[in-house]
């Protein structure tokens, strides 16, 4: 099998998805850390449209976007399947992964970079998404059933590895294990899987990254407000 490389960044929950999929499938790969502020020539060459990580390099071909990378890995390496074979179950897994991305991960990114009423609104939205996901587990061990699958990887990259950092940086509480007991148990089981726990992002890098985004965005909002006041 051709050589596999992964372009990533230490703090990135999106890169985490690709690393977990590679680990679960037992694929050996070379990891290349990227400087996202400078965006070196390798990243620009491999992902000229978005210039973002993760990017998977396989047999000289470049594949960008974490959802697409995980699906590509699943189709290329058949061991430890991540998506169900049945077309309807497959469609459902894609639906819930998209839900977890749009209604939880994207919303949590907004929680981290906002404050006041805007932040309260986003915290409420994130909790509503968790309530729905709590119901969707329906007594299953994982979203993928007895084994971790696509939805677990997509959702886990935010809830298992960076939610507490996002809560700390945003000075909010979103997750309550009393309120979401199935998700709390899911999280414990998820983090016990060797292929998952042996690759986790480094907390200090995540704290630095999310704190920097929060400071930057709040400063931009304050600058806009000042501009508007001067216009009056
Ligand atoms: N939708 C993309 C998001 C990837 C993403 O936002 N990556 C961040 C790192 S956490 C990045 O490369 N940011 C650099 C930039 O946007 O300039 C995916 O799922 O792969």
From TrEMBL:
Domain of life: Eukaryota
GO molecular function: glutathione dehydrogenase (ascorbate) activity; glutathione transferase activity; methylarsonate reductase activity
Gene3D superfamilies attached to this UniProt entry: 1.20.1050.10, Glutaredoxin
UniProt EC number: 1.20.4.2, 1.8.5.1, 2.5.1.18
GST N-terminal domain segment(s): 2-81
UniProt cross-references to Pfam families, sorted A to Z: GST_C, GST_N
GO biological-process terms attached to the record: glutathione metabolic process
GO cellular component: cytoplasm
Residues covered by the GST C-terminal domain: 86-210
Keywords from the UniProt entry: Oxidoreductase, Transferase
Catalytic activity: RX + glutathione = an S-substituted glutathione + a halide anion + H(+); methylarsonate + 2 glutathione + H(+) = methylarsonous acid + glutathione disulfide + H2O; L-dehydroascorbate + 2 glutathione = glutathione disulfide + L-ascorbate
PANTHER family: GLUTATHIONE S-TRANSFERASE, GST, SUPERFAMILY, GST DOMAIN CONTAINING, GLUTATHIONE TRANSFERASE
Family: Belongs to the GST superfamily. Tau family.
Record-given protein name: Glutathione-dependent dehydroascorbate reductase
Organism: Actinidia chinensis var. chinensis (Chinese soft-hair kiwi)
């Amino acid at each position: 099998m051709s050589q596999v490389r992964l372009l990533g960044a230490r703090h990135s929950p999106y890169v985490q998805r690709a690393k977990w999929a590679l680990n679960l499938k037992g694929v050996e790969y070379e990891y290349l850390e990227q400087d996202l502020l400078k965006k070196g020539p390798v990243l620009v060459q491999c992902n000229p449209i978005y210039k973002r990580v993760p990017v998977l390099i396989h047999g000289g071909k470049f594949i960008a976007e974490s959802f697409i990378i995980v699906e590509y890995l699943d189709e290329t390496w058949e061991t430890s399947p991540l998506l169900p074979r049945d077309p309807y179950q497959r469609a459902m897994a894609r639906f819930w992964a998209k839900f977890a991305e749009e209604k939880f991960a994207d919303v949590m990114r907004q929680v981290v970079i906002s404050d006041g009423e805007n932040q309260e609104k986003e915290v409420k939205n994130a909790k509503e998404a968790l309530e729905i996901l709590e119901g969707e587990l329906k007594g299953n061990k994982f979203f993928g059933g007895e084994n971790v699958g696509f939805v677990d990887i997509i959702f886990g990259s935010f809830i298992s590895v960076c939610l507490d950092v996002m809560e700390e940086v945003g000075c909010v509480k979103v997750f309550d294990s009393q309120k979401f007991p199935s998700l709390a148990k899911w999280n414990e089981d998820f983090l016990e899987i060797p292929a998952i726990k042996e690759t986790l992002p480094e907390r200090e890098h995540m704290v630095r990254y999310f704190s920097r985004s929060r400071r930057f965005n709040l400063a931009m909002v304050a600058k806009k407000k000042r501009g508007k006041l001067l216009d009056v």
